[in-house]
Amino acid sequence: MSIDSDEELLKAELANLRDEHRALDAEIGELTTSPLGDRIALQRMKKRKLSIKDRIARIEDQLYPDIIA
After folding, report:
1. Long-range contacts of 24-29 (CB under 8 A, 24+ apart)
2. pTM of structure
3. Which is nearest to 55 in space by CA: 15, 1, 5?
4. How far is CA 4 from CA 8, 53, 59, 64, in A?
5. 11, 21, 35, 57: least CB-packed within 10 angstroms?
6. 8-31 tens-digit pLDDT
7. Cα-flanking dihedrals φ and ψ of residue 39, to 5°?
């Protein structure tokens, strides 16, 4: 694989992760306002959201390294 195709794959994965993160955020918002919210499901969603956030940060670091001059 070339560097360009690796970069494109990372950008596509980043976009997918951001979409999933937004969707989870919306679900968590709905579940927290519901009086019948499932606390275990809410915990799992928050954990998944945090995991996705960490993956997003790792991919962004790969794509846009912090170069100190």
Report:
1. 24/48, 24/49, 24/52, 25/49
2. 0.83
3. 15
4. 6, 24, 15, 14
5. 35
6. 999 999 999 999 999 999 999 998
7. -65, -35
